[in-house]
Amino acid sequence: MLIPPTNNPAQSRPSRSPIKVPAVDAERQRPPLEDLRIYTPPPEENKDLRSDFRRKRTALKRAARRAIRSITVAGAQPKYRTAWCGHRVMRDDWGRQEVQLLLEDGRAFYRGTYRCGSVWLCPECSAQIARGRKEELSRAVIEAGRIGWAGALITYTFPHVWSDELDPMVKRFAKARAKMRGWRAWKKFTEKWQIKGEIKGLEVTHGRHGWHPHAHVATFLGDAVPPGRRAEFQKDLFVMWARACLRADLPEPSEEHGVRITWFDDTADMAVSYVSKWTSIQELVGAQSKEGKVIGRNSWRLLEDAAGGDRRSQLLWLEFAAAFHGRAQLRWSKGLKEKLKTPDLFDNQLLDEGRGGENLLLTMQKDQWQVVCRAACQDFLLEVAEREGSEAVRGAVNRLLWSVPLPGGALVALLE
């Protein structure tokens, strides 16, 4: 069990107010994370992958923070809020700045820190929002199946070369989609094939031919398209898409690759395909087959390579951040949510953790939380809370506060 270094930690220091760090022996100079692990049993392998995924997302988040700081002028505000996510302490309605550590159903989490809510740049916020969007998509598709709709998963793309810049290419891609959907020909097309609505998800990878933006569109049909008429459907759609690309100053796509369609007579099958295609990448789970360098690396793989010291991957990720920051990740066609009885959910609602049954383990003040962040022990404390409980994690925090100073050499008060 994790315990403080003395029976009465308060008496082991001259004062509970901030003080300069005196000369200490080698035992106290041991790195705090390594020191804490002495008292922690090794994690059980292959039993719970939550900790592994959490560590991976945290490593990616640190790489994102380093990349953002590399383009931030000294003393200026970071360009992207992800640099503050999980570090800055929010002020509550009573003006207090506190971070709570809570436990619910065996899962520990913090409350009181700033969350950026970026689905493109932040691995932690993206994974949490993706879980909520997956449930939202699943409920919508189940309702579509209940009312007898069929579905098709359509992928739109266009030719590109390695020298194409991402931001103007994505803007022209969006312009092409908007032009196509605004034509009378599109209205006639939707009436002819009984298209009830669409859900569009945007994705981009980087490979040997440069950036590759493409859209995965879940299309709901009032009736299944007979196999004998599917070629006609694809031909009609491709003609409009090729024309839209030219109008938006994009290269004309080939008939083979410009529009690809996977047909589903049962929307339940489409749910499995579409949801897994979208959320596998956003949740950083099972996405390795999609992330191969031959096919292309998504933003998380670029960030992972940047964390390993690849400067070019860091520059590519910053180019991606500039192009996608602030963009919506999923777009529903007008009126589709009402038809499928799906309520509107905002990203900040999906970031709220806990269902009302959480237990408060401890509360840290702002300066105490700064010590935890400086020691990079946020994930470690969550693991201790999940595996050993309240007393152990409180001892772990006090051991950190006892041994890790703030910038300038000041120690802070222990937990009471």
Q: Structural class, from secondary structure content?
A: alpha+beta
Helical run tally: 15
Radius of gyration: 25 Å
Strand order of the largest sheet: 6-3-5-4-7
User: What is the helical fraction, as a range of percent?
Assistant: 40-55%
Overall pLDDT score: 81
Secondary-structure element string: HHHEEHEHHEEHEHHHEHHEHHH
Biggest pleated-sheet summary? 5 strands, antiparallel
Question: How many beta-strand segments?
Answer: 8
Residue share in β-strands:
5-15%
Anisotropy-based shape: elongated
Distance between the termini: 19 Å
Low-confidence segments, given as residue ranges, are 1-47, 279-294
Textual characterization of the structure:
The protein has 416 residues and is α+β, with helices and mostly antiparallel strands. Helix content is 43%, strand content 14%. The protein contains 15 helices and eight strands. Strands 6-3-5-4-7 form a five-stranded antiparallel beta sheet, with helices on both faces. Helix 4 runs antiparallel to helix 8 and helix 5 packs across helix 7. The chain is elongated and about 75 Å long.
